[in-house]
UniProtKB/TrEMBL annotation:
Its cofactor is Zn(2+). One of its GO terms (molecular function) is oxidoreductase activity. The keyword Coiled coil does not apply. The keyword Oxidoreductase applies. Residues 24-137 form the Alcohol dehydrogenase-like N-terminal domain. Gene3D superfamilies: Medium-chain alcohol dehydrogenases, catalytic domain, NAD(P)-binding Rossmann-like Domain. Pfam families: ADH_N (PF08240), ADH_zinc_N (PF00107). Belongs to the zinc-containing alcohol dehydrogenase family. Residues 175-298 form the Alcohol dehydrogenase-like C-terminal domain. This is Alcohol dehydrogenase.
Length: 346
């Protein structure tokens, strides 16, 4: 019998035996190499759900993952044992949103690792063959995992459409924020003003190329002589994230909101946004971006490894959830290895 990490409700995560279901038509079994602890996983742990995706019974989270094929996949030219990534978003393919090319907005989606669909914080998982993403041979499980959050960052920057050398304010320097920072640089953005309340995340943002780093939105206002930036991207878990993005934006500017607020609620003074005449977009998951994500990592244009501060086995995973929920010092991105940590240098 396999084992898995379960979330039973708010602040209730534990490891227990897991009965692996039978595979269905068009599915393939993989041994999970590694799985990321995402901000959405943390919301399931802290809040017991996100919007309508409520934890009603114990479920296995984990949608950022890579693993090893347990059988040949001839249609993709992949042999048993090949390391692959998995796109967790199984859209229906026939609704009006899918037909318009917005599979990330599909209302009929079956999303691996979002209740009621079990995810990859377990030793083995059946996944649709159509969701398998082949990888370059030199990729590691860490890189396979980080393609999914990098895809979220790419989608956010696609929505933001930064102009060449345009000044951008970035609110939140967690994993998604740090990936957005690097994609902005690859896209030709100019000065990037990054803020985060945690000093170690500010330091990582500076290391990854932020022009200026600070603690709060007031720093952005000071750096821009109280005018604000023409483009602001928000990637926090704060109910005040929307408000802060508005306060950091120049009159007539643009905002892209990527973060999911704790409690699933924003607090916003409406007049501040209305009087600025802002253009506001919300980002949800990602589009068809895996090829670009792979190219950015393989070409060394995005560093996904440096932000991975903690790598743990399955037994340590519940404490890792708790540490992230408590904003423990030094934590940015954690990876869980359900089948054991890789050997030193592996």
């Amino acid at each position: 019998m396999s084992r898995a990490l379960f979330i039973r409700g708010a602040h209730d995560a534990y490891v227990a035996p897991f009965n692996l279901r039978e595979g269905g038509p068009g599915e393939v079994l993989i041994d999970v190499g590694a799985v990321g602890l995402c901000g959405s996983d943390l919301h399931y742990f802290k809040d017991g759900g996100i919007g309508s995706a409520v934890v009603k019974e114990p479920f296995v989270p984990g949608h950022e993952f890579g693993g090893y094929l347990c059988e040949d996949l001839d249609e993709l030219g992949l042999a048993r044992g090949a390391l692959v990534a998995v796109d967790p978003n199984k859209a229906c393919g026939h609704c009006e949103f899918c037909e318009r090319g917005h599979a990330n907005l599909c209302p009929n989606v079956e999303f691996i690792g979002a209740p009621p669909f079990n995810g990859a914080m377990t030793e083995r998982i059946w996944v649709p063959k159509s969701q398998i993403v082949p990888l370059p041979q030199q990729f590691s499980p860490l890189e396979a995992v980080m393609l999914e959050p990098l895809g979220v960052a790419i989608h956010a920057v696609d929505l933001a459409k930064p102009r060449l050398l345009e000044q951008v304010a970035l609110i939140g320097c967690g994993p998604i924020g740090l990936l957005i920072l690097q994609v902005l640089k690859a896209a030709g953005a100019g000065e990037i003003l990054a803020v985060d309340p945690q000093e170690h995340r500010q330091a990582m943002a500076a290391r990854m190329g932020a022009s200026r780093t600070g603690e709060a939105v007031e720093d952005i206002r000071e750096w821009t002589k109280r005018e604000g930036a023409p483009l602001v991207i928000e990637a926090t878990n704060s109910p005040l994230g929307f408000r802060d993005a508005v306060l950091a934006t120049k009159i007539g500017g643009r905002i892209v909101l990527v973060g999911i607020p704790d409690g699933d609620t924003y607090t916003l003074p409406a007049a501040e946004a209305r009087r600025r005449g802002l253009k506001i977009k919300f980002a949800r998951r990602m589009g068809e971006v895996y090829p670009r994500a792979i190219e950015l990592v393989a070409g060394g244009k995005v560093d996904v490894a440096s932000m991975v501060t903690h790598q743990v086995g399955l037994d340590e995973a519940p404490d890792t959830f708790r540490n992230h929920a408590d904003n423990a010092p030094g934590y940015i991105k954690s990876l869980i290895y359900p089948n054991g940590l890789p050997k030193q240098g592996g």
